[in-house]
Design goal:
mainly alpha
Length: 73
């Protein structure tokens, strides 16, 4: 791969990461406005989305299956 192409790919990857972060921030802000999602779930989502690994459906199920302010027993 040429140096110019490598630099372009790097800039694109950075732009995509920034775009993903902007979308996640807006999503979390909208959830915070909701009466139906407690702050603990929003904090868990924020941590999940900030993680460098790609979130899995099970991660979201785990967060949203919990009762407000508690763990499943």
């Amino acid at each position: 791969m040429g140096l110019h192409l490598e630099a372009t790919v790097r800039r694109f990857a950075i732009a995509m990461a920034t775009l993903q972060q902007l979308i996640a921030d807006k999503f979390l802000a909208k959830l915070a406005e909701s009466k139906h999602v407690d702050s603990e779930k929003i904090d868990q989502l924020r941590a999940l989305l900030a993680n460098s690994k790609k979130p899995k459906a099970e991660d979201f199920v785990r967060i949203f299956s919990l009762p407000a302010g508690g763990d499943l027993k």
